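Methods — Computational structure assignment.
A single polypeptide chain was analysed. Its primary sequence is given first, followed by the predicted tertiary structure written as structure tokens.
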Amino acid sequence: MSYSLLVFVIEALANDAEDYKATWEDFRGQQRQEFDLLLEDERVLSIESSWIEDLRNSIVNVLHPGATRRFTQFAINHIPDDFYHSSNNTSKRPLRRSRTRQAIQNAYVLRSSFSHALTPLTTFLIRESYRAEEVNQGSQTYLTLRGLFRLVRSVILDFIDKQEQVALHNHPWHKEAHQHGLVKEAPVPAYLRLKDPEGKLHKIEAQYAKYWLEDILVIFQDNYVERLHEKLSLNQTDSDWFMGIATSGPRVGEGIFRFDPNPSYEWSLISKKSLALIPQAKKSYKGYLQSITLLCAHLEEMDCGYSIWNSLLESRAFGKPLFGLERFVVDVIHDELRDWSSVQAESLFEKHLKKNKISMPSRVEIACMLAIAKLFKREGSNEGRKKWLTIAHGDSALYPKEQKFIQYALDSDTAVVNPSEFLNDPCI
């Protein structure tokens, strides 16, 4: 009920906004085609055009087409620029600019499901509120109750601020109290999916290559970029890192963390096993297997300083390189963008932002945005450079130091933040 009421607050504001009102143009696709065919039928040729226009307006008033789209756009139009700034966030996982549209759309859908069918709110949107403003389920991003509350407050204040007849004053609304606690019913961490309790790697299979790639990306961020295990050894603990004590299964009695507290991986072995699977794998799996092969080679290079990247590319088993989103991500991590154009990378990544093809950790995702900005700069497009720097800035509230460097690049006519620096040195 609380979640739905928060959505209704924005909807109530929008109802009187001129830009929010439904028009005939809000009918789209097959629905619009069917209406237009009927109204252009020769049987209505003798009817005055004004009557047809009145009929259209009546249909619009009854059906209110494009409600979700109009609601989403109204909310986005009233999100202030500083909403994504690190100083206005206390969450462990703040809402990111690139996820805002999808998250607002899903909030409206959840509200409609409750209002029309009494479908209860998924419990994790409440449970995760203590630490997160956004959470992912499948390929979709959702606002937690905490995230929706801050967004609604922002929209209300911006809406009021834009009403010329009202005198206003500033208020520090963004300072929210939050509590730390243990995560219940949390998902299994990536490292527990790769290794058994004795530290032995599970067998990699082609049909699960996508999930292996996603888990390796998480381990890369947590243990190679953020180096959380080193902070743990220095007692720089954070309650969000600790998930609890296992009460069942092979790790009963063991402390479970969100990251691997004792990272030790034979990356070269995973790379070889993945490479061996490529020739006989289905085409839909080959891109993931190629990416795992190269990513593990990169991690082996980080561990040992020995590179086999080029020899893998030349291997007969590797086959013809497939340049999908997964390969772009790995090339960004390896700091090798020579095979990419800005348009090619942008097209892949925009599709990813609309509907996640693969799940990737936030720092890796932001690095990809910075890489696209770098490609646009390389090709002389300042508009494209600034577009992706703006998106990266809006997604980086969790990393205040890095956000400052991105802001510096935005304020410049030519500067960019190198994605390799963003990944290899968290403090830049």
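Note: Residues 190-196+203-237+265-424 form one domain.
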